[in-house]
Amino acid sequence: MSGVTKFDYGGQTISFEFADGNKMINATEMAKPFRGKMVADFLRLKSTQDYMGLLEERYGNSHIAPSREVLRVIKGGDAAEGLQGTWMEEKLALKFAAWLSPEFELWVYDRIQELITTGSTRLQGIPPSGFAATLRLLAEQWEKQEHINENVREELDKTAQRLDELESKIISVDDHYYTIAGYCNLHKIPCPLHQAKEWGKTAAALSRQKDIPTGTAHDERYGQVRTYHEDVLKEVIG
């Protein structure tokens, strides 16, 4: 996570991550000034679930397409740097702010506008989490060097391909739930992007029909991706 800017609201630090295509706000910090109002309560609301579904559809988060995250939960990391907690995409964060307090909603909106118009984000020097993300960051930095030779470029291309293979093997914590890409990789099934989207739609509809819950997993490149029970995937993909 990089490009984190911290603002003070009544003595409470609120962290904004507006960099590298991300526009996320730490919702756990947002809730702290408002006693009795919890992030989990807001996320359980049907109106919130419906709104998140629309955002996921807009950003392509329903399956494996690269997209902006709607919701990010970080259980580890350095709490002093504002990494831990639940992070919300700016539109969802504004809806959450309005649920907390109209005055706070306006304050959050003003901070978003400030970041957009001035670009005043403060880099914290925090490397991306995970081995694959670290390798990708190093590869990007090497590619920026003007005198990089062709042999190194070839190795970087090979590394990028290996990273793509590793990152496609996303499996949720529950051993019986898989992403579309993870299931296909496990069973050596070709998984082009357009086909993965169709399988994802079918799996989501079948899960609702059979009243089987779906899950989510965090991917360092794609953000939140949906997972499905293996019985559903067997019926949909084979």
Element string (H = helix, E = strand): EEEHHHEEHHHHEHHEEH
Please, what is the oligomeric state?
single chain
- Mean pLDDT, rounded to whole units? 77
Strands of the widest sheet, in order across it, are 1-2-3-5-4
List the domain count as a whole number: 3
Known CATH architecture of the largest domain: Roll
Distance between the termini: 37 Å
Number-wise, the strands total: 8
Topology, pairings included?
Elements: E1 4-9, E2 12-19, E3 22-26, H1 27-31, H2 39-44, H3 46-59, E4 71-74, E5 85-89, H4 90-100, H5 102-118, H6 131-143, H7 150-167, E6 177-178, H8 180-186, H9 193-210, E7 215-219, E8 223-229, H10 230-236
Antiparallel strand pairs: 1-2, 2-3, 3-5, 4-5, 6-8, 7-8
Helix pairs in contact: 4-5, 6-7
